[in-house]
Structure formats: structure tokens, C-alpha cells
Write a structure and sequence with these properties.
Elements (H helix, E strand, L loop, with lengths): L16 E3 L5 E3 L3 H23 L8 H18 L9 H17 L15 H25 L9 H24 L1
Helix pairs in contact: 1-2, 1-4, 3-5, 4-5
């Protein structure tokens, strides 16, 4: 049986441009491409967190985080102007419910303390992931601030990232408390 050669490299980006979901070619420094890249970085760090969580007392959070990764793909597609992609407000509510459940597991004393990043490897990964989430959120806000008529970014995406950074903070505190 002959093997078919699949070439991953298209070489279309060699001149410093890439395509958005609507086919438009833009610079790789375009704010949309920057935002998509930051969402990709956030998703990658979530992958590391998931790998570490699998062996922790909080492994029940793994499935939630995997679904969160899928949600980040939807946000990335929306940012990249992929037709028909829009985050539904139910996803923000879903995340808030997860935060409420996680909050109940954490002693109330964490709310009144300043917490330095770190503690153990998993907590440090969560703190980095939270910071990247905040950066991703700022990139989306910057896109909205452009007041571009072609801007099809929806407020739910920003709200989701805002809640996700809060969730990551809660999860880091929960990890520290179980360590």
C-alpha cells in the first residue's frame, strides 16, 4: 500500500501574513492574530494543568477543564472571524456554577489574604495560566475598543475569560489547601 504524503507546511505565511476565518489575509501581528495566539497559549497551559491535575486530589476538575479548552476553541474561532461561531451566554453561567461549587470546597479565610503565586508546581502552573488568561482577556477587550464595524466579537467571550481567570485563582487556592 502506497503512503500518501501529507504536507503540513503551506508556505503561505512565509511573507509574514496569515488568513482569518473569512479568507482575509492579514499580518501575523494583526490584533486578531495576536488574540488567537494568546488563546492558543492559554489552551496549551490548560493542557499542562490538566496533565498535572490527573494525579491530584482535585482530579474531578479535569473534565471541566477539557470542556473549557473546547470553549476556548469557540472563542478563538469567533476572534478569527470563522462564520457561525459565537460563544453562548450559557457557557458563562456554566462556568459560574463551577466556580460556586469550587468556592464551597475552600475555607472562607482565603478571601481575606493576599496570596503570592506559587506554592507547588500545580499551583504555579495555575497562576501562570491565570495570568495568560487575563492577557487574553485584555487582547479581546482591545479588539472591541477598536470600534471596527467588521468586529463580530461578542461580550460573552470577554465575560467567559474574566470568569475563567477567577476560576483558575480559586482552583489554585484549592490545590494549595489540599497540598
Amino acid at each position: 500500500m502506497a503512503q500518501t504524503k501529507i504536507n503540513l507546511s503551506t508556505k503561505t505565511g512565509d511573507a509574514g501574513t496569515t488568513s482569518l476565518g473569512d479568507g482575509q489575509r492579514v499580518s501575523k501581528t494583526h490584533p486578531r492574530i495576536k488574540a488567537v495566539g494568546e488563546l492558543d497559549e492559554l489552551n496549551s497551559w490548560l493542557g499542562l494543568v490538566i496533565a498535572e491535575l490527573k494525579t491530584s486530589p482535585l482530579k474531578d476538575q479535569v473534565d471541566f477543564l477539557k470542556k473549557t479548552q473546547q470553549t476556548l476553541f469557540i472563542i478563538g474561532a469567533e476572534v478569527a472571524l470563522v462564520k457561525g461561531q459565537k460563544l453562548k451566554s450559557e457557557k458563562v453561567v456554566w462556568l459560574e456554577k463551577q466556580m460556586d461549587n469550587l468556592s464551597k470546597q475552600i475555607k472562607p479565610r482565603w478571601r481575606n489574604q493576599f496570596v503570592l503565586p506559587g506554592g507547588n508546581h500545580l499551583t504555579a502552573y495555575l497562576d501562570i495560566t491565570r495570568a495568560i488568561c487575563r492577557r487574553s482577556e485584555r487582547s479581546l477587550v482591545a479588539l472591541l475598543d477598536q470600534k471596527d464595524t467588521s468586529n463580530k466579537l461578542h461580550a460573552e467571550s470577554i465575560a467567559f475569560l474574566n470568569r475563567l481567570s477567577d476560576y483558575l485563582y480559586l482552583l489554585a487556592r484549592a490545590v494549595n489547601l489540599t497540598a
